[in-house]
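#struct-help
A.M.: can someone run this one for me? Single chain, 425 residues.
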Amino acid sequence: MTDKLTGERLVDDMTDAERDRAARIESVLPALRAAAAKADEEARFPVEHVALLREAGLLGLVVPERYGGLGGTLRDLAAATFAMGTACPSTALAYFFHNTSASRGLLPLEAIDAGLFTGAEVPVVRAFAEKVLTRMASGTWLANFASESVKSSGANITIATTARRTGGGWILDGEKSFGCATGVADYYLTTAKLEGHDTAEGLVTFFVPREAPGVSVRAPWDGLGMRATANNGIRLDGVFVPGDEALTVPGAFTRMLRMSRGSFVGNQLAIAAVYTGCAQNVYDTVVEELTRRTFADTGRPIASSPMHQVLFGDMTVQLETAYLWLRRQLRLETSEPPLLPKTEVFRQWRMGKGAVTEACFQVALGAFKASGTSGAMMGGVVGRALRDLAMGLVMTFPAERGRLEAAQMVTEAKENELFTTADRT
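D.P.: on it. Structure tokens below:
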């Protein structure tokens, strides 16, 4: 019988083609796992992982074969980030954000096919979209920079970085507070707003070379989360971007988002898969260690004590909870034909993201309690997992915001059912 691949623990019904792609991921896991502790200790992204993933052809995992990629889908990406999460969550997170760049190519092409662009817009949109995909497939690492420190009450992500036209291209000014692979990626795929626009219709996208004049790295990020992601962010001070390295068609961004199956650009569940892989690893590690270690007086495994049995039972329930939510969301976003309307898929994700990340954190918390003081080491698997998984509680949005939005969708829809019209008599 063929050995089960790590990614199959999440995506347990892989096709032969998916399994072949998952085998490529499996081949890099030993190197990722070997570097994880040192990378975390030094808070440094292992730059050697870029070459490792490039040589395995994995930078084009979700790029269609016609553009030189491996032809994977969201199922492949979720399996990949999960598997990497069991080995080095920091690399898994950075790899996830690289792959989100593909949406800037795939969704515009789908929008073209759906007739959402005019005849004059199509060549410009197609050229940029295909450039994204061919660069990824050729081994170019893209860092996807959208998030900023500025916040607004009505949106999860607010864009303040501006783009103003100049001879031959555009000038960018602003600051990106969150984005993996700072100083590592070949290009920063940067979202900005056209000068003079105040709505999402003015959101535009640029290829910003890592070494472009005016690009600088923000202060090192020493956050409560995955420390080896090169998550410092960037400053853009009068950065020039040529016109053919930008997609500045007004409304292009919002039109492409209409093509996603659910969350934002349709791949956000793969970040929850990173956390689930991390939770699975700390669970496996603690179960093995406390089953192997024994009490000095009885010789029985430490894991057999009533307290530990309760903790392991709780951890098992939490881990299975994460799997159930994640697999359900994956099915909703990949099934053909779609099982639910997009609004319901989106609502499910607003609940699911928080449910997965909170469950994963509870796994790490249980592992911490089960391990006791001997496991309370910052450089150990338990300590790293507790810190890594804490980030999931706030990444993009906390569970409370997702549940609030889901409740509003449900109650507002029901409220509308209470109103009707009648003929006057």
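A.M.: thanks! The domain at 269-415 is CATH 1.20.140.10 (Butyryl-CoA Dehydrogenase, subunit A; domain 3).
D.P.: also worth noting: DSSP finds twelve helices and eight strands in the chain.
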